[in-house]
Write a structure and sequence with these properties.
Helix content: 40-55%
Subcellular location: Cytoplasm
Strand content: 15-25%
Organism: Acidihalobacter yilgarnensis
Distance between the termini: 21 Å
Radius of gyration: 28 Å
Number of strands: 13
GO molecular function, one term: GTP binding
Mean pLDDT: 85
Protein name: tRNA modification GTPase MnmE
Pfam families: MMR_HSR1, MnmE_helical, TrmE_N
């Protein structure tokens, strides 16, 4: 992507609001160096060398003293000329400097505009740009490390590897179309091409699994606890949260609405949702709670279905339209009363625990992490977002369609079209193929100055 020096120059306070030891004002654009010289009344320090400077007001009086650094384009974050002033962290001081730059001709930066310019100028791709926001918002050490891997290009490299495979297949297919006397996919199809297409599909499926884990790491997984009243759902929430988040009483139906809390299990951010006990009831409020419980299950990454040792679970607890890929863990609570062993017993599909005594809780934690994609501590984990995962899924759908066309002999041109769709969907992830409105949606969620 060619570097495009923007015609206007933007300015923003790049540090968070409030008091602090250091505050940063950032400028980027074709006039950044000229504006910095007007702001300080002195020539700029050498590129990438800090120089001590005063920032001057319109009356020539100093506003603040700090370090000035210059980064000439195209070898800067945005690909443009950048100047940063690192001064004292008071909001009033920083705003005065920023306001002076606006008076001198800079434009207030939009949220995420520095990162957007970095993308538009080819310094980073779209997945890397989103990783910047993921790094800032990281809720755990593992999430921060995974976001940094995405920022350095680990996710993008895997996507581009798949795009390269698809380009090779498309080139071969287009050549067959150009030089073939008939639109006969059987005449073109070869075991090698079929195998290459199958291998690409398998690699995409693997990447999709990794991306799902990365999404859960970046944005947090959602686990819903469901079951009949008084089986220990709220007690399990409290045990996992390490606090009394939910009211626990012997009275059935105590929990009537959804109760949410956020925890981190072995580095995996997890939102746990406690739900109303599911049963037939004439109580209007409780019926609404049951409806909300089932709706939460439909949107969950994992459902924990609880009952009590010696009692049968409700057969109709789960909603009929539950997504088939949603894992369900059957927990049998109160094994301290039944004498059962914690964990999975031979021949049983349920896991035994005692929320009261803590028996089986370590086994449960390990199983929860496994069902949600495994521990995120390995060094290959990267962050991903919902839109990126959807693009991977759409690419996989197109690849499946291409394989169907190939095996059923439906025509080379139709096969080529499906491969093009698969290729384009992958391009949406890194920004090679990007609807204009998507850029606005992505960068508008960034903070100003980033």
């Amino acid at each position: 992507m060619a570097v495009v020096q923007s015609r206007d120059t933007i300015a923003a306070i790049a540090t968070s609001s409030g008091r602090g030891a250091i505050g940063i004002v950032r400028i980027s654009g074709s006039d950044a160096f000229a504006l910095a010289e007007q702001l300080t009344g002195r020539i700029l320090p050498a590129p990438r060398m800090a120089g001590l400077r005063y920032c001057l007001g319109a009356d020539g009086e100093p506003i603040d003293q700090g370090l000035l650094l210059c980064f000439p384009g195209p070898n800067s974050f945005t690909g443009e000329d950048i100047v940063e002033f690192q001064g004292h962290g008071g909001h009033v001081i920083l705003h005065m400097i920023w306001q002076r730059l606006i008076t001198l001709g800079a434009r207030p930066a939009r949220p995420g505009e520095f990162s957007e310019r970095a993308y538009l100028n080819g310094r980073i791709d779209l997945a890397q740009a989103e990783a910047i926001a993921d790094l800032i918002d990281a809720g755990s050490r593992q999430a921060a490390r995974a976001a940094l891997r995405s920022l350095r290009g680990d996710f993008s490299t895997k996507v581009e590897s798949l795009r390269t495979r698809l380009i090779a297949l498309r080139v071969e297919l287009e050549a067959a179309i150009d030089f073939s006397d008939e639109d006969d996919v059987d005449a073109f199809a070869s075991q090698r091409f079929e195998r290459a297409l199958a291998d690409t599909s398998a690699a995409l499926a693997t990447l999709l699994v990794e991306a799902e884990q990365g999404r859960r790491l970046a944005q947090g997984a959602v686990m819903v606890i469901g079951g009949a009243p008084n089986v220990g759902k709220s007690s399990l929430l409290n045990r996992l949260a390490g606090d009394d988040m939910a009211i626990v009483t012997p009275v059935a139906g105590t929990t009537r609405d959804l109760l949410r809390t956020d925890v981190v299990l072995e580095g995996l951010p997890l939102r746990i949702i406690d739900t109303a006990g599911i049963r037939e009831t004439s109580d209007v409020v409780e019926r609404e709670g049951v409806a909300r419980a089932r709706q939460a299950m439909r949107q969950a990454d994992l459902i924990v279905l609880m009952d009590v040792a010696g009692e049968a679970a409700l057969a109709d607890t789960l909603p009929n339209d539950l997504p088939p890929q949603t894992p369900v863990l059957h927990l049998r609570n109160k094994i301290d009363l039944s004498g059962d062993q914690p964990g999975y017993a031979p021949g049983n599909t349920f896991m035994g625990i005692s929320v009261l005594t803590g028996a089986g809780m370590e086994i449960l934690t390990t199983e929860l992490v496994r069902l949600l994609g495994g521990s995120p501590s390995n060094e290959s984990t990267f962050t991903a977002r919902a839109r990126q995962i959807e693009a991977l899924r759409q690419s996989a759908v197109a690849l499946d369609a291409a394989r169907l066309v190939l095996t059923q002999g439906l025509g080379i041109e139709l096969l080529a079209e499906e491969l093009r769709h698969a290729h384009d969907h992958l391009g949406v992830i890194t920004g090679q193929v990007t609807p204009d409105q998507l850029l606005g949606e992505i960068f508008s969620t960034f903070c100003i100055g980033k």
